[in-house]
Amino acid sequence: MSLNSIFQYFTPKDKKVFFPLFEQAANNAVVMATILVEAVNTTNPATREDLIRQIDKLENKGDEITHQLYLELGKNFITPFDREDIHQLASAIDDVADNIQGAANRMSLYRIDDFNEHIKKLSDLILQGSIELEKAIKELRDLKNKRNIADSCIRINSIENQADHIFDRAVADLFLYETDAIRLIKYKEILSSLETATDMCEDAANVMESILVKNA
Amino acid sequence: MSLNSIFQYFTPKDKKVFFPLFEQAANNAVVMATILVEAVNTTNPATREDLIRQIDKLENKGDEITHQLYLELGKNFITPFDREDIHQLASAIDDVADNIQGAANRMSLYRIDDFNEHIKKLSDLILQGSIELEKAIKELRDLKNKRNIADSCIRINSIENQADHIFDRAVADLFLYETDAIRLIKYKEILSSLETATDMCEDAANVMESILVKNA
Amino acid sequence: MSLNSIFQYFTPKDKKVFFPLFEQAANNAVVMATILVEAVNTTNPATREDLIRQIDKLENKGDEITHQLYLELGKNFITPFDREDIHQLASAIDDVADNIQGAANRMSLYRIDDFNEHIKKLSDLILQGSIELEKAIKELRDLKNKRNIADSCIRINSIENQADHIFDRAVADLFLYETDAIRLIKYKEILSSLETATDMCEDAANVMESILVKNA
Q: Which family is it part of (chains A, B, C) (predicted)?
């Protein structure tokens, strides 16, 4: 940072700026996950296509929120938490959204119309994880209820563990029963995006745990 | 950093050291992308193999430049930009080169000889992105023409968007028309490396935008 | 970090805390790699399954060590090396363990029973890399024998290069001789996890080289 610009960095607006953006990003992920659950449960292909287009648009919105967070990080010298933690938390929420959109996009691109229980269960776990993420993010603002944040992080870890097991079983099933290699590739990629979305919830939880430790 | 070594970190050589290395790295990516475009457009397999070997060697050269940048970052306490930005920018340029080499290497390894329009167009976008990247990097030295850097970043973002759409269409086509699963895997991996190279140009642009914000 | 918690960060326990954890993490990777080599060389499927279960448990143990390292990083303001280096070194060792477990897990999940020379050789290189990693980590504590650390890093780089070449040849062979696309996918993923484990050894070596430069 150049010396002649250092003073503008000291502004008291840090909390006013960062928390609303984090809350918007987390809420956007919850909305995307809600629509994903609808998309894998509907039996109407046209409805599904429409839902997937909504997910696409929300992912763009999420990108803009993340970009805004990075810009604010560049402009603000004083931040409510360590800069690195803010950057990693913003990235992790963005990665949740990216992987929801990636899974939905592949469902459309690969013309998938048979949604098995593994896909439905993983989508449901992404929604649960996103909801816990949003709850924890809302508590970050004042850190009065650290116990609540810690509890959400523990639940996110447990959700990710469940997703891991479902993913492993789903992939094992594919290799046992799917004889069409191209179908196998399609389903494996969709399962992989879904599972990665829960990994990214866990990444966000890890950053929040680290923030809790530093503010103990 | 240990206290007894802190003084050697304050040397005024920062600009002399970092900018030439960044310019070499960016130029190396442009040369690699130029050769890639030649390789996917030649109809002579022997010529193509020779070009791919050249890309391999340039990737090694790029690795050395990146390594040198990291070493200088370790040795210099005062840096022209935030240390994290220098690290990320060097990594992003290295990742552009890695993915160009990865795509070229797979073309050779998988004995690909049919280069469709999607592959040619993606290679062309990598070259355009690398050229914009080099232009922006050259302007970083004095930051007199911030507008030029910002414009290059905007063009890189647009190039990455175009690459995304071509990649999605190319993969959809593969799943619709390619009945040989093994050929599908080969082409999908090559397309994926090419598309990732443009993502890495965008990563570099994001770091430069963040540098601009901090020096506004 | 909040002002009212800054004082508790200044404790002289840094060396007592970080080095034993790093040594445990590196040793855990060596044990995992040793068991992996056994698993790919045994002809008894039941023995192999048992070994893979052991690798699973050790990976959990490694996760706990890494988590402990991150917690200490959050709690300690003074660290023996740059915080970023500690974080990256812990991540890299964790990634070695993750990829060993990932490869072993796939061997079990995909019911692989034919372990070719490429798989055996890559497993052996992971073991060699992990042993060099542990040697270097033990020397980090006092930095008296920097030459030894540098030598281990050079050997890790050479091991990673060998692994790259074996991986490329193994994948080329798959695409030349394997006509069953599903078997091709299975083997390619296992080879990829094994090769990535040696990449992660190299990542760890890069961090240690950077620590050496800063403490020159």
A: Belongs to the UPF0111 family.
| Interface contact A213-C71, CB threshold 8 A | yes
C-beta atoms of A74 and B210 within 8 A = yes
Contact between A53 and A118 under an 8 Å Cβ cutoff? The reply is no
Q: Do C74 and A172 touch (CB under 8 A)?
A: no
DSSP reduced 3-state for B112: coil
Pick from A70, A74, A109: which is nearest to B171 by CB?
A: A109
The rounded Cα B97 to chain-centroid distance in angstroms is 5
Mean pLDDT for the stretch of residues C26-47:
97
Compute the distance between CA of residue A116 and CA of residue A169 in angstroms, rounded to an integer.
Answer: 12
Burial grade of C7 (CB within 10 A; 0-12, 13-18, 19 or more): exposed
Q: What is the C-alpha to C-alpha distance for residues C76 and C81, in angstroms, rounded to an integer?
A: 12
Say how far apart CA A23 and CA A137 lie, in whole Å.
6
pLDDT average, residue stretch C70-92: 87
* pLDDT band at residue B11 under the 50/70/90 scheme: very low
Q: Is the ipTM above a cut-off of 0.85? A: no
DSSP state of C99: H
pLDDT by residue (tens digit) across A20-35? 999 999 999 999 999 9
Nearest to C131 by CA among C17, C15, C32: C32
- What is B10-214's CATH number? 1.20.58.220
Q: What is B56-90 written as a DSSP string?
A: HHHHHHHHHHHHHHHHHHHH-SS-SS-HHHHHHHH
Tokens 């930009």, residue? B81
Which of B70, B55, B51, B62 minimizes the C-alpha distance to B26? B62
Question: Does the domain at residues A12-214 carry the CATH identifier 1.20.58.220?
Answer: yes
Query: Cα C165–C167–C168 angle (5° rounding)?
Result: 65
Question: Closest residue of A to B178, CA-based?
Answer: A182
Do residues C123 and C194 touch, judged by C-beta distance below 8 A?
Answer: yes
